[in-house]
Write a structure and sequence with these properties.
This protein is mostly beta strands and about 90 residues long. Helix content is about 0%, strand content about 60%. The chain has strands at about 1-20, 25-30, 35-40, 55-60, 65-70, 80-90. Strands 1, 2, 3, 4, 5 and 6 form a six-stranded antiparallel sheet that branches. A hairpin with a 4-residue loop joins β2 and β3.
Length: about 90
Amino acid sequence: LTLTYAVPVTATGIEIHQTYNPGSIVRVEVIDLNGAATEVYSAQPAASAACPEVLQIAVQNVPTVNTVKIYLDQSVIGSWNEIDAVELIGNP
């Protein structure tokens, strides 16, 4: 899932709101204005008992970004994952 935002920011965080089968997110990258990606989160897939769930990711020491890329692995859950919103937090 790739999301591009209209206003580039110096990112301080990302919040991913999962509303069905949370736990499938295995990697999150931010992409700067030159197209370079920086990994800011990685994990193994794991079913979560909490639903809905907000995955909060702290972001530090990355250049100005306007794109977030989310990688999913649904093999453990055996079904799909629903993401309602992705907030890119930072200073313009």
